[in-house]
Amino acid sequence: MLCCMPGVAVVPALLVVWSSAAFIISYVIAVLAGHVEPLVPYISDTGTKPPESGIFGFMINISALLGVITMYIRYLLIEKQNESSHFITSSCNMFSLCIGLMGCTGMGIVATFQELAVPSVHDIGALVAFGSGVVYITLQSIISYKSCPQWNTYFVCHMRMAISVISCIAFIPMIVFASKISMTKIDWAPGEK
Question: pLDDT, tens digit, for every residue of 100-109?
């Protein structure tokens, strides 16, 4: 089975490295081109104008694909472990995979529809990506606890749950503040509201 093959663990590592590179490269290009201020711009702002928009879109779409592969490997791994332990229902594992795939689809939408070109589609994609991501990681944390101690240590379970809680806490202000502003441009002149 794919999930039991040596070397499969490189896929999640590649996902992290590639996604980080996507954000860093588009940020550096956007700052050097003068398209964003260097101090903490929105991730989407660094991928709005050419040439960084093309690089951002391409690299984030690859990240979404790597996310799909990573989540499918995790799904297969849990299915294989569940054959001997029966710690969750197969439908729960499938539901978690579907939620994760929705998040990857949201990432693809964010990458394809730039923030200022089609803002409503971009915002819906971001909401789907981040919302599904929070639900996915929470479900994976619960699955980890159910498979403990045979397939996970309690330390790993606690770390996953801590990341889930932080993600949930961060998601709430993101929704609140995003709903209070409607961004229609990046460049602002002094005195504008």
Answer: 999 999 999 9
Largest CA distance in the chain: 66
Residue 144 has which token pair?
Answer: 């980890």
**Relative orientation angle of helices 90-112 and 52-85, to the nearest 10 degrees:** 180
Please provide the size of the chain in residues: 193
Contact 64, 123 (CB under 8 A): no
- As to burial, measured by CB atoms within 10 angstroms (0-12 exposed, 13-18 middle, 19+ buried), residue 103 is buried
| Beta carbons within 8 Å of 104's beta carbon, 6+ residues apart | 64, 65, 67, 68, 71, 129
User: For 46-77, what is each residue's pLDDT tens digit?
Assistant: 888 999 999 999 999 999 999 999 999 999 99
Q: How far apart are CA 156 and CA 137, in angstroms?
A: 13
Q: Is the dihedral of CA 118, 124, 125, 126 positive or negative?
A: positive
Which residue has tokens 């490997």? 73
- Reported confidence tier of residue 193, pLDDT bands at 50, 70, 90: low
The answer to whether 76 and 3 have CB atoms below 8 angstroms apart is yes
- How far, in Å, CA of 88 to CA of 80, rounded? 12
SS3 113: coil
CA 162 to chain centre: 17
- Please name which of 27, 183, 59 lies closest in space to residue 118, comparing C-alpha atoms: 183
Written as six digits, the tokens of 166 are: 């932080």
